[in-house]
Design goal:
Elements: H1 3-26, H2 36-52, E1 57-61, E2 68-72, E3 80-87, E4 107-109, E5 112-114, H3 118-137, E6 144-151, H4 159-166, H5 171-178, E7 182-185, E8 189-190, E9 197-202, E10 204-213, E11 219-220, H6 221-224, H7 231-240, H8 271-278, H9 291-296, E12 302-307, E13 318-319, E14 322-331, H10 337-351, E15 357-362, E16 370-371, H11 377-390, E17 395-399, H12 404-413, E18 416-419, E19 423-424, E20 435-437, H13 438-453
Parallel strand pairs: 3-6, 3-7, 7-18, 8-19, 9-17
Antiparallel strand pairs: 1-2, 2-6, 4-5, 5-20, 9-16, 10-14, 10-15, 11-13, 12-14
Helix pairs in contact: 1-3, 1-13, 3-13, 11-13
Amino acid sequence: MSNTDIDSQIELNINKYISELSKLIESKTIAIDDNKPEFNEATEYLKNLLTSSGINDIKIINEFGNQIIFAQNNIDKNLKTVLLYAHYDVQPAEPLNLWNSDPFKLTIKDNYLFGRGVADDKTLLYSIIKALELIKNNKLNLNYNIKIVFEPSEESSSIELNKLFKDENNLQKYKDLFKCDVLLACDSDMISEEKPSISTSVRGILATEVTIFGPNRDLHSGSYGGVVGNPITEMCRLLDNIHDLDNKIKIHGFYDNVNNFNEDELIDIDLEDLKKDIEVDDVIYEKGYTLKQCCTTRPTFEINGIYGGYNGKGSKTIIPNYCVAKISCRLVDNQVPYEIFNKIQEYFKNNIRKAFKFKIDRNDEGSMAVNSNTNSNEFRKIVNILSDVYNKKIVFDKVGGSIPIISKFKEVLGCDVIFVGFAYNNCNCHGPNENYSLQSLKNGIKTLVNYLTTN
C-alpha cells in the first residue's frame, strides 16, 4: 500500500478520528488524582477502540491500582514481536486561566489540536490504534506480532507498572507477557515539521523531597526573631549553594562517571529563539557546554517547589516549624538514581547547621537514562520510513525529558528501545495550550502503518 493510498484512507476517516479523539481528551485521566471513574471510562473506551482495530486478546491488569491495558494479536513464531508503549494519563491542566480553550475539550485552530494530553500522549496512543485499524480494514499483512501496553500513570512515576515489576511471585509471568524483540516507546517528540527528527535517548530522573525542621511549632517572630533559626532561611541557604556561578552542581561526586558528548553530535538551540519563546532576557546554563547539551546530555539539579510557613492572604508574622523543597534531577549515562540520592543526602547532612534537623525522601526509585541502538536494523528501518513520510532527511536528536518505566522495560526484557514521537518541541507539553499538529496525527498513523507492514 503506497503512502498516497494511506493518505487517502486517512483523509477519508479524518472526521471520525477527530470525533473519537475528542472523547479520549474529555477523560480527565489525571494520574495524581484519585479519580477512578475517569480511568474506568477511559479504559472501557480504549478497549472498545482496540477491539475495532482487530486486536483479539485484551487484558486489563488492575491489581496494582489504575488499569494497565495490555493487548496482543495471535502470536506467529516466525515473526518478530514489537511492543508498542504509550500512556493515557495526563498532567493536571492548571493554571486554567492561561488556557485559551477548555483543556478537556478538543479544540482545532489553524490545523492544530489543543487540549490536555494531545501531545502527551493521547494522540500518539490513538494513532497506534488507528494504524492497526487501517491495516485490518485494508487487509494488509502485519510484519510483526503486536503487543501493546497503555499505562495509566506515566506522569506520576508509573506506579502500577513499577509495582508489577516488583511482584516477584508473578514477575516471570509478566516478563513472558511483555516479551518482545523491540519496544516502540510512543511517547517522544521531534524538533519541527521543517526539521523532522528522531530521539535517540532520554535522560533518567530522580525525584526527592527534603524537609528541614526548626522549632517544634510556629513561633511569634517578634518574641523569637533574631534568636531562633528559620527553616525556610536555612533551606534557601543550602539550595543557593548547590550551583556555582558557572551553573555547575557543587554536590560532591555528582558528576562521577558522566561522559562528555561531542558537540558536533547535536544541533544546537538558537539562543534568541529560545529567549523569545519563553519571554526571558537571558538564560543560565553550564559553562563549557552548548544549550542543547545542557538540555539533553548533561545532568541537572532543579528545585521544583518550596513551601512552608504562611502562604495565605495578608501577613502572619511567624518563624515556621518546617520547610519543604521538592527537587528533581535529570540523570545521564552511568548515573544511578540511588547513588545520586545518597550524594544529595550527604550534602544536606554535612552542611545543615546544628539548629536544624532534616529528612530526605525519594518519591520513587527513579530511572536511568536510556539510549537506542542507532546501528540496529529496526532503528534504521524507522528512520527510512520517517524520511519517506516527511520527504526530508531525519535528524538524530536527544531528549532532555524522561520516560522512567522504559528504563525498567529495557532492564527486565532485555530488548532494544526505539523512541517514536510526532509532537513538536514547542507543543507546550505539560503547560497551558498544549497542542499537536493535525498533520502530525496523519504522519503518526502513516509511519506506524508502514513500519508494521514492511520488512
